[in-house]
Amino acid sequence: MGGGFAVGSVILLGGDPGIGKSTLLLQTMDKLSKSSKVLYITGEESVQQVAIRAQRLGIIGNENLLLMAEIGLKTILQMIESKEPQIVVIDSIQTMYTEMLQSAPGSVAQVRECASMLTRIAKQKNITIIMIGHVTKDGSIAGPRVLEHIVDAVLYFEGDQHSNYRMIRSIKNRFGAVNELGIFAMTDKGLKEVNNPSALFLSSYRTGVPGSCILITQEGTRPILVEVQALVDNSHIMPPKRLAVGMDNYRLAMLIAIMQRHLNLQLFDQDIFLNIVGGVKVSEPAIDLAVILSIVSSFKNKALAPKLAVFGEVGLSGEIRTVQKGQERIKEGIKLGFEKIIMPKANLPKEKYTDIELIAVSDINQVLQACFN
Q1: Do the bridges between strand 128-133 and strand 10-15 make them parallel or antiparallel, or are there none, so unpaired?
Q2: Which domains does the chain have, with CATH numbers?
């Protein structure tokens, strides 16, 4: 959130059903109620159900943490007027309705009107309002996209329900950096913060395995090391399969074309599968170098050197382009004990590092010479 909640801001939190949105906000409001007056409005559960969850999470509660089960916006606004909270949680915006409209709760008109009225109250009274939003099958927030335009910040709470780890990602934020990433572990006592996500994503990393490469990616202001795995195998059908999990499929197809053209690799009859370990989604172009090295490593059946990490964007003519925040990435690699980093020449820092070898490259042929000769 860029250091905290801005006064008068409206925040939209989206996520799959059962991912832990209500748990996250209940824990957060418990912390904030120590210094601020909080009104938690639930439209999906009764007060008793929320109280049972609070007991399980070890939340005792206090006079600053107010709970209300209501879906009528008129009653909610009256409660905000009388109690004058500093923070209000709406769980969820799709359950709310206003009597000014005849449509059912959850309809486009109701969601838009309720969100607009709550935003107006937030700005007039300098109240921070957090709205939970349902998501559709394709992962976007249900209802009109106008919700994302009205609010000041949009957060997505995501993760595999079969995994203990959850990620909260900032998509839009008028008061801080976008693409920030917070990582939490779901326990029987609620969500616990993961302070070192790089160590988490590399916990099952094995050296000496073909098709594996460590990428230093950047999520907002935080550098994170993740493992990129590739599997290249002879295809028995045409056209061969190309599948990427955790990155854009079109970018994978482009990188395969670059390899075939500039590295003379015959991949037209090979199935290629790519996976970013740990369920992370990487959208930045700095992933290119790690993808190419993992594919070449699997194709040649040769493992990369141990304690090697990479980052860099690859252009269509095979050149290695500069990426943002190279120095922060290098420091994260040093912190986790890596001994070599392959990086774009333009990102080479002026200061000298004695505890790590920095290999600066300007095209992908130099990368292969550094890794496989």
Answers
A1: parallel
A2: 10-195 (3.40.50.300), 200-372 (3.30.230.10)
